[in-house]
Automatic annotation (TrEMBL):
Subunit organization: Binds to RNA polymerase II (RNAPII).
Keyword GTP-binding: yes
Function of the molecule: Small GTPase required for proper nuclear import of RNA polymerase II and III (RNAPII and RNAPIII). May act at an RNAP assembly step prior to nuclear import.
Name of protein: GPN-loop GTPase 3
Protein family per UniProt: Belongs to the GPN-loop GTPase family.
């Protein structure tokens, strides 16, 4: 049985930085992990790249030869990946053993969930190859400053959840940048009724019914569960990883001991 994280979320939410911090953490604790670049537009890496979509297709070549802009070229590259999925993945996975732990650093375009089924098919392939896969959805904590942005972030995450049908962990990234932790505290473990009342205050009266439906949806999908990630703190990375490991049943037999992460805690 192999294990995999699919690291997704909007562009700039901190996916590649998370992957690199995760790699460093695993190096420190002597745990084997391989990071895969699935972003054809990525140019710079702070982690050793185990597999690279750019070896299959180059964004620059597509832009030049087909005269596409960066977004169109990215979708073209991902469709190319989809067309060659079985061959590419089989060839790449040949270098790994059955119980390896892979982390896929994905592009951030919302089109990957709304327009093309490539990530879903990618996941299906991984499952067929006996991988336990978890979606790790990053949202930048800088943007979760009021209830409307929170709901909007939840909806984006939900669209990925519906598309991928995977165990799902939501992460609130860049906690180090928050000057006032109170700004997000309300959203780390919010009470649906409090959310609804805040939403109703912010929106015009004609949205009352919609607000209620949105909060119910968010509540029912157990979405209201964000794990804060502060990359300065080893304990925070450890906690996030433990949540994900739990989702994919990694190390079930091992005695994994992780204490709860407290955002106020200084690092040990
Ligand atoms: N302060 C801070 N900056 C971060 C963090 N994570 C990412 N960044 C910055 O946010 C920008 C986008 O990060 P990146 O990992 O490339 O995002 P991606 O597009 O989701 O892969 C970069 O300038 C990073 O240095 C974080 O935890 N703290
Ligand atoms: Mg990236």
């Amino acid at each position: 049985m192999g294990y995999a994280q699919l690291v997704i979320g909007p562009a700039g939410s901190g996916k590649s930085t998370y992957c690199s911090s995760l790699y460093q953490h695993c190096e420190t604790v002597r745990r084997s992990i391989h990071i895969v670049n699935l972003d054809p537009a990525a140019e710079h890496f702070d982690y050793p790249v185990a597999m690279d979509i750019r070896e299959l297709i180059s964004l620059d070549d597509v832009m030049e030869e087909l005269g596409l802009g960066p977004n169109g070229a990215l979708i073209y590259c991902m469709e190319e990946l989809e067309d060659n999925l079985d061959d590419w993945l089989t060839e790449q996975l040949d270098n790994y053993t059955d119980d390896d732990y892979l982390v896929f650093d994905c592009p951030g375009q919302i089109e990957l969930f709304s327009h093309v089924p490539v990530l879903r098919n990618f996941v299906e392939h991984l499952k067929r190859k006996n991988f336990n896969v978890c979606a790790v959805y990053l949202i930048d904590s800088q943007f979760i400053t009021d209830v409307t942005k929170f709901i909007s972030g939840c909806m984006a995450s939900l669209s990925a959840m519906v598309q991928l049908e995977l165990p799902h962990v939501n992460i609130l990234s860049k906690m180090d940048l928050l000057t006032n932790k109170k700004d997000v505290e309300d959203y780390l473990n919010p009470e649906p009724r409090a959310l609804l009342s805040e939403l109703n205050q912010r929106m015009a009266p004609q949205f009352l019914k919609l607000n209620k439906a949105l909060i119910e949806l968010v509540d029912e999908y157990s979405m209201v569960n964000f794990v804060p990630l502060d990359l300065r703190k080893e304990s925070s990375i450890k906690y996030v990883l433990a949540q994900i490991d739990n989702c994919i049943q990694y190390g079930e037999d091992a005695d994994v001991k992780v204490r709860d992460f407290d955002p106020e805690d200084d690092d040990e």
